[in-house]
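Board notes (copied after class):
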Amino acid sequence: MAIIKKTALVIGAGTGGYPCAIRLGQLGVDAMLVEKDKPGGVCLNVGCIPSKALISATKLAHKAQHASNMGITFPAPVVDMKQMQTWKSSVVKKLTSGVGSLVKANGSEYRQATAEFLAPKRVKLTYSDGKPDDIVEAEHIVIATGSLPIQIPGFEYDGKRIVDSTGALDLDYVPQEFVVVGGGYIGLELGQTFQRLGSKLTVIEGLDRLLPSLDKELAEPVIRQIKADGGEILTGAKAKGWIERDGKAWISIEQNGAMREVSADVILVAVGRVPITRGLALERTGVKLTDRGFIIVDQRLQTNVPGIYAAGDVVGQPMLAHKASHEGEVIAEVIAGRKAINDARVIPAVVFTEPEIASAGLSKAEAEAKGHKVQIGKFPFAISGRALAIDETKGFVQVVIDAQDERILGVHIVGPEASDLISEAALAIEMGAYAPDLSMTIHPHPTLGEAVMEAAKHAIGEAIHIQNAKH
């Protein structure tokens, strides 16, 4: 058993860990990155990237079947799920295969091993190939171990009938009936993916509406789309259990005090995620956790134990890859002795449903709760020239501003390419921009981005292509 001395050790090579290790190397810090599984973590391997690959493929098939009003008619698509999975895997491989090389190229060491704390600054590395354990002694240790899907009683994952998001992404056939337990963004993204391929979609949500964490107005276009495509939505409903009968899974559901059954070929359980801290022996460090098991950190991403930091899903919401990457890089700057804190004004969030939803900053209700008197600007894609030309007119852009000084507080988009359009909004809020900054910036025509400009104009009563509201 060898003792290895490092300035910094990063545990977990996901979207929080590997950017941290790369930045540490760039800053000249002697660092090691340790990962027990595949480099890239959840996002690159079983989350963001593979899901968006399947979403992209199925949207193409769906759009081809709804192009007749453009004068183009296609025969029914032939979906080869095995080939689609092969293509998805190739996309994942291209991205994950370079992680280790990038880490090494930037001056940090990369090892595949399981990490376990022996003391606050001592970590044991166990190798799966039988190689003798090593002990790493490091002045700084970063925990970036990610999260796992929550299991609910009676719906333990078996990879066949009951799957988590990882299992759903690996399905090499199209289930006739696809049931999602949980009406959040993960369940709806994957549910609509299989719905576009022909699955009968049923969504079971315990609260009174889908996407409860988002403003109701943003969720409505997605709800309408699910129903328009033949899906069934059961809100205020709880999945109590299931049995196998007649070649199907039959789910017992309690709704409004009554019981009913819904049949399924595959049941996706997507009710949230929990941080991965078990197995690390954190109790040997004294690091404090919340009641839900998340690691408590300050603005410098430091825990209560000097020299131990944490980034990504293990520190709590929002559980987003880009948030994890930013935190990892901040930690690297802190370790290198720079004056860095996690002071981002805004973390944009995207839901890759149909239509897409993207938000940056405060909603109207959140802004008012903080004491702002607000004005709203809104521009529907139904009157956007570009949206009409590509036949994607669902949704709108909404700009929330402070009524007194016209500072931009939030931008919310539901509609085509919302995931790309939101970056302009995030930059505007991060820079402390005002509505005229957006409204007076000349946007190219015809583009979807014009809708952001038009919504900003509408917020200050200067819209050209929509009637201005009286403020």
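Comment from the instructor: The first helix runs from residue 17 to 26. The chain has a mean pLDDT of 95.
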